[in-house]
Amino acid sequence: MSKPVPQVGQVLVRVHATSINPLDYQVRRGDYRDLVPLPAITGHDVSGVVEAVGPGVTTFSPGDEVWYTPQIFDGPGSYAEYHVANENIIGRKPSALSHLEAASLSLVGGTAWEALVSRAALRVGESILIHGGAGGVGHVAIQVAKAIGAKVFTTVREENFEFARSVGADVVIDYRKEDYVDAIMRETEGLGVDVVFDTLGGDTLSHSPKVLAQLGRVVSTVDIAQPQNLIEAWGKNASYHFVFTRQNQGKLDELSTLVERGQLRPHVGAVYSLADLPLAHALLEKPNNGLRGKIAIAVHPSADTKVQP
Residue 114, exposed/middle/buried by CB under 10 A (0-12, 13-18, 19+)? Predict the structure, then answer.
């Protein structure tokens, strides 16, 4: 494909790295065909270097290192050597992160920030249950919650206990060996947690009220494919929030601050080349794949470091 040309208010970025998210393979298999006609270039993370700017751009100049999440369902994605984006959704890449790390953080970091800060309004001293704490968004959410000052419970497989603790989890629960509802109520002496962050959906969403404290909040990033019985949420005066993350330069700046303070760092669990995208998709789609953190995609030769899961 020819190199895109930035228009008014746009920036042309040479992509050094991107990453894989569930949204990418959902688009590829046609889950959003009404919004994204196929075939399409997907991909929702960019870390790279500004190559050129369009008329009216004042924030960035050629040579600047940047990171961002492309507009979801609006234009080509980031599985490309070059990408054009509006200036107002782009942030300056944290200097403490490599391009592979930055590309592994922009979408999941923005999602975790919107869920915990913008929706749940998690506060210092509160408690939160984060499902899937070893996953891409889960391990970032744990770090954001700890930076806020919350006590973090998380569900992971036993082999991921050490990893979950290393990113800040206070209490880890093996969901295969113990009912997490029983574990949470035991650990909180029957009080429950203030917030549940659901990255799994299904039974996890319907069981969330069982571990909530009074006036608790549930934030979910998962589509509701089936009707849910949330009658127990009524008895807890609970509130529910459903997050479809929105691009925002401000969120990137907040995440950069946490990175520079040493409170947030994404874990890159595997690295593939752009040519090996099908392998990367297949790995993320595989149930119980053993992956920790994110799958990064090296696009520019400088980021071409192979890391097996």
Answer: buried
